Amino acid sequence: MAILKIARMGHPVLHRIADEIDDPAAPEVSAIVRDMIETLDDAGGIGLAAPQVHVPKRIVIFFIPAGRDGPEAEEDEGDEEGDEDRGIDLTIMINPKIQLLGQETTLDWEACLSVPGMMGAVPRHAAIRYRWQTLDGETMERQADGFHARAVQHECDHLDGILYPMRMDDLSLFGFADEVNRNKDLLARPNPEPEDEP
Ligand code: NI
Q: With contact defined as beta carbons under 8 Å apart, do 43 and 116 qualify?
């Protein structure tokens, strides 16, 4: 077990297409996943992709804290009433694939362990379906919206050499996290589709 060094924006490992894993059950895959979990725990993020620890392979780990698995927009019909938000447990994904659902996009803030100290408002697809293999080689599938969909898109982008600033279309909404957090209310809070005004 080891805490691994996190690659920062500018390092070429973050900008290449990561390799598929042929055998998710291989012991070296479990070993890197263990180190990724320890590294994420130490760094304090919610997700980590293997290229961020200098391993150019298609592995992502993430979790969604309770209270953040709801839709980003205040009001939205969740899948079900009383869809109370217990978050998503730590999920280990080998060879994840995303299918975009619909055309709707939302804009919200993101940060990244490979872009330390910064944050930016990034457009993302509002709803996705995603599929991955477990460490046993089993195929799993989930649907996601809101912050959950955003986090999965962000992490899987790392496997294709894409960092969140490369997805931004308004760099005036990119800055040092402490400044942005202090001034968030001064920036027009991103909200591309005003739902019916109260
Ligand atoms: Ni990231």
A: no
Query: What is the Cα–Cα distance from 132 to 91, expressed in whole angstroms?
Result: 10
Q: Tokens 């280990």, residue? A: 92
Q: Is 110 exposed, middle or buried (0-12, 13-18, 19+ CB in 10 A)?
A: buried
Structure tokens at 15: 């900008």
pLDDT recorded at residue 183: 82
Backbone angles phi, psi at 118, to 5 degrees: -115, 160
pTM: 0.87
State the Cα–Cα distance between residues 121 and 62, nearest whole angstrom. 20
Active-site annotation, residues: 155
131-166 b/e (C-beta count within 10 Å ≥ 16 → b): ebbebeeeeeeeebbbbbbbbbbbbbbbbebbbbee
Q: How far is the CA of 77 from the centre of ligand 1 (A)?
A: 28
How much distance in Å is there from the Cα of 88 to the middle of ligand 1?
18
Backbone angles phi, psi at 19, to 5 degrees: -85, 145
Cα 197 to averaged position of ligand 1 atoms, centre (Å):
34
Q: Per-residue pLDDT tens for 16-36?
A: 999 999 999 999 999 999 999
